[in-house]
Protein 1
Amino acid sequence: MESGGRYVSRRKLLMGNWKMHKTVAEARSFAEALGQRSQRLPEHVDYVVCAPFTALHILPVMLPTKVAVGAQNVYFEAQGAFTGEISPAMLSELKTRYVLVGHSERRQIFGESDEWAARKVQAVSDSGMIPVLCVGEDLSEREAGRTEAVVRGQVRKGLSLLTAQAVAAAVVAYEPVWAIGSGKTPTPAEAQAVIQAIRAEVADAFGSDAAGAVRILYGGSVKPANIGAFVAQPDIDGALVGGASLDAESFAQMAEALAQPGVGGGQNG
Ligand code: PGA
């Protein structure tokens, strides 16, 4: 497989992760503000807002039609005695299209393992939604020179229950833990190197077609001023954005940056 997928057209993806922010009223205000800016969201890019569960029911009707709705977590069982959990069917009923799995906050604060990530990824995919497997090294792993090994292991385990066809439709988000919410980022070339390694891992495990099709995002302190440089890299297909996705104007600015010359925007080459 040629790195960067010159012969494969992967649509760019701008994905917001609101984390534990926004009441229903605040989510409604955001949707209205983004609606006023929807002309500024280029058609050849995919947009997603990953909202808290409580706001999911209003967003598909309130957001501009080109912006899809994502959830930030899910449980892998279909139903049963799992107090406090939400099933894939509960999400898809609300027109949720994407589900984040294994975000570093889930892994670090709530103790989620690679095994859980794999089961959640499989449950999301089996329910007809798109899993977004989040991976990334922490600072000590980076300083020990283990970034690629850690990330490749998370990818291999997290995708292990999918078919190659399902992997092709999935999304992986590379988010170095030390870059999340810190204002620090790797250089675009460093992020490209890790994401290229992720694509190579997918190729080893699932073949070159899946590796050429799977979309891989960079995340961690992305904002309007730096998103273009990341997404101009050949293997980086978009961004997963926390803080800078909370404001509709900032979201629109990132959408515009994705459409700049040199960024690609899902066109071949
Ligand atoms: P940040 O968060 O953009 O605020 O760094 C990214 C994420 O955790 O997905």
Protein 2
Amino acid sequence: MRLGVLTRLVAAGLALAATPAGAVAGGAEPVRLEFVKMGGIPVRVSAWDVAPANAEGLGGACDARLDELEGKLSAHRTDSLVARISRGELRTVEDPDLAAVLGKAATVARRTGGAFDVTVAPLVDLWRKARIDGAAPNAEAIDAARSRVGYRLLGVDGLDVGRLADAGGALDLGGIAKGYMADAVLAVLRDRGVRRAIVEIGGDTAMYNETGGAAFRVGIRHPLRRDRLLGVIEVNGGAVVTSGNYERGFEIAGRRHGHVIDPRSGVPTPQDLLSVTVAAADGSEADAWATGLFVLGAEEGSRLAAGLGIEALFVVPGPDECLRILGTSGIIGRLQLHEGRTAEPAASSP
Ligand code: ADP
Ligand code: MG
């Protein structure tokens, strides 16, 4: 049976496609839902094999879960858990979502030697102000912010927010929250009996497939051309996330800076790495690793990824304005590149 007409409601930052009562998504036609969250980030959902009884209210359930998570994890919402922790108002983490995100963040922080670090907030703030002022911060200002940054401030399990507050620290989950939210939407769909689904949040894609049907083909954005894909990667489940500076970089005094900051040096990552794509078991892991490997750069990042069995693809500038694409073995095997491009094996583990 084919899916009935999709009704698209676009209102006040929310775009929600609702299925009419009794609609069924069979093999080919998915139920599609669309939302806009976190001040403008699109969330797109496709769900296959939706039983009639479950189709109704599916959009509302996803929407409510996304709002709930935004209210917990967003640094921009003054009433969020993250904002309250950053103001020193909460000394323990009671919330299961925040605990899960911080636990995952702690693992990636440790494994990347602090290249991925959700306590990077004071440095993000510093560079945000620099962007507004049009002048880079001086060394003293960078050192002062750096003294309030460090994943170890959160303790071994990553949950010691009281200690973080005592050190004048703050949280920024921008490098992991979208991936976690994609996982959470998939969990809502799974709970409602959906057997195959894909969720994309601002370029982070997570999916599962319990039907035994065809694998998903996830596009990998060209790091320099917005309207082009570099290629596609085939995956049956898990997540594919790309970190790059192309979207939200900025310029100070003629020099381009990325929105990802190296917490170890306190300065934005250099522009010699264009993007990192990670395929992992879930969205939060893929998101955190993509950001962490982006900070480490192609050489160190690919060595670490290969050593730990993280599937990653690094795009760096090549000769004559060409791109060089370096990937770990597992990802190269599932990759189809466009325009006659080829991927080279990334550095193998030491
Ligand atoms: P995007 O949001 O563009 O998909 P990322 O997932 O790589 O990119 O996350 C970048 C965001 O993560 C930044 O905007 C900032 O909020 C935060 N961030 C910046 N540097 C780091 C870092 N070294 N570790 C963890 N999070 C970071
Ligand atoms: Mg990330």
